[in-house]
Amino acid sequence: AEDSFAKESSPEGKKWTPLKPATIKSSYKRKAYTKKGKKTKGFERYEQKRKILQVSGMLKNTLQAQTSKSALKISSQTPYATVHQFGFKNIPKRPFLPVTQNALTQQAKKIIHKRYKEYMG
User: Fold this and answer.
1) Is the pLDDT confidence value at 13 over 80?
2) Chain centroid offset of residue 118 CA
3) DSSP structure string for 57-114
4) Residue among 19, 96, 77 nearest 52 (CA)
5) Cα–Cα distance list, 43 to 21, 52, 65 (Å)
6) Residue 66: strand pairing partners
7) What is the pLDDT of residue 69?
8) Taking the complete model, does pTM exceed 0.85, yes or no?
9) Confidence grade of residue 14 (pLDDT, cut at 50, 70, 90)
10) All residues at 6 or more sequence positions from 5 whose CB lies less than 8 Å from its CB, including other chains
11) 40 CB contacts (<8 Å, ≥6 apart)?
């Protein structure tokens, strides 16, 4: 998940859908445009630095993994994690975990298998 947030792409490397201009503007807390309709310098800098799914960092920072003998559970305290992972109505999916609707992706299975073999020797 950390790589997905850093690279703004799915675990398979597919770039996330860019943010809409209105989304960027709605998260900017200062004046975005001058009276003449030009973008302010501060807003231009903000647009360039604005990371997808990372306004507060809450989604990335609340991901938790729990393991048992036969299962791996990944969860987030944010109510919108599933919406971003799978998409919903006019919100595009921006997958950050290596899972599809009900299963791990092939890449995730390979990584888990490799780590298991390394751990077991």
Assistant:
1) yes
2) 28
3) SHHHHT-EEEE-SS-EEEE-S-TTHHHHHH-BTTBPP---SSB-SSSB-HHHHHHHHH
4) 19
5) 11, 16, 37
6) 73
7) 75
8) no
9) very high
10) 51, 53, 54, 60, 96
11) 30, 31, 32, 33, 34
